[in-house]
Design a protein that fits this description.
Residues 156-281 form the Nudix hydrolase domain. The chain is of the alpha+beta class and 307 residues long. The chain has two domains: 11-125, Nucleoside Triphosphate Pyrophosphohydrolase; 159-304, Nucleoside Triphosphate Pyrophosphohydrolase (Alpha-Beta Complex). The protein has helices spanning 27-34, 108-125, 199-211, 261-269, 295-304, and strands at residues 38-42, 48-51, 54-55, 58-59, 72-77, 80-86, 94-95, 137-140, 145-148, 153-154, 159-167, 172-178, 189-192, 215-226, 231-240, 253-260. Strands 11, 12, 13, 14, 15 and 16 form a six-stranded mixed beta sheet that branches. It is globular and about 65 Å long. It starts with 26 loop residues before the first helix and ends with a helix.
Length: 307
């Protein structure tokens, strides 16, 4: 049982978005494409407008007559240029990326569009000054870099984080709950990779810090962008001894339990927390699991599908 693999590509990794990298430095081509270009407006909370379950894309000309520094070029769809911009005046039916997969469906194109735009705009929000010399920066390369007054070019930052399913090599899995999560909502353990640290060592350290458990047989499963604010989740599986006591050292985890495969399957059949079919009221089920856009869901589903 310890050799399971992902049985599906994580939702946010299924993107069909054409990033058209060759156009980012071609100012003339971007100007020519602006007249027909589409624009995704996203507020500071990462919310976008939705109509009939579909993300609203405005004409780029509603922003300006030509590309502006605050807009970022996301890619191309059927020859039409796609841009994104921060807009805190949005009104109407608003939703964010986390809601997709629970209350709304998200196709592969939308997954790439939203996750890329969110990660880029989040980076720009924090990159107004150069980390090298402290001088103000301006958006360059159609939003895919920022250049300081001294000419230093900085690129979008992505923070690697590991996420790991811990199992006993048989029929049980260890799931945990953070203090800020609703009662009954459990997921995999995760944490950011530290400087000078390998991914495998990070898995060992994070799990030991959070639940006091030693793991072995660490295996890589797959990855998924997670633009909250700008991470890349690297999925792993590892084996642990369920007889080893659980201990919470860093205060991030407040509850962790070993669940059987049958219990996990029952929770999966009940739907994700926050979904129309999932339980999220004052008396939640014993076990609730994350929504489908999380790689955690894909990993858990893959493990639970094993015979």
């Amino acid at each position: 049982m310890s050799g399971f693999q992902l049985n599906a590509v994580p939702v946010l990794s299924r993107t069909t978005l054409d990033r058209a990298e060759h156009l980012r430095a071609d100012e003339q081509a971007l100007k020519e494409g602006w007249a027909q270009a589409k624009l995704l407006r996203m507020n500071k909370r990462g919310q976008v407008r939705v109509e009939a379950g579909v993300v609203v894309l405005d004409a780029a000309l509603t922003l300006a007559p030509e590309p502006t520094p605050e807009a970022v070029f996301v890619g191309v769809d059927d020859g039409v240029h796609l841009w994104a911009v921060r807009d805190n005046t949005l009104a109407g039916m608003l939703t964010d990326l986390r809601a997709f997969g629970t209350t709304l469906e998200l196709d592969d194109f939308g997954a790439g569009l939203l996750s890329t735009a969110l990660a880029l705009l989040n980076w720009h929000d924090k990159a107004a000054f150069s980390p090298v010399d402290g001088t103000p920066t301006r958006s360059t390369n159609a939003g895919w870099s920022r250049t300081s007054e001294s000419g230093h070019e900085d690129f979008p930052r992505t923070d690697p984080a590991v996420i790991c399913l811990i199992h006993d090599g048989g029929d049980r899995v260890l799931l945990a709950r953070q203090s800020t999560w609703p009662e009954g909502l459990f997921s995999l353990l995760a944490g950011f990779v530290e400087a000078g640290e390998s991914l495998e060592r990070c898995v060992e350290r994070e799990i030991k810090e959070e639940v006091g458990v030693d793991v072995r047989e660490i295996r890589y499963l797959g990855s998924q962008p997670w633009p909250f604010p700008r991470s890349l989740m690297l999925g792993f599986a590892a084996v642990a001894d369920p007889e080893q006591p659980v201990a919470f050292y860093d205060g991030e985890i407040v509850e962790a339990h070993w669940f059987t495969r049958a219990e996990v399957r029952e929770a999966l059949n009940a739907g994700a927390w926050g979904s129309p079919t999932g339980v999220s009221g004052p008396t939640p089920a014993k076990l609730l699991l994350p929504g489908s856009i999380s790689i955690a869901r894909t990993i858990v589903e893959s493990w639970a599908a094993e015979d």
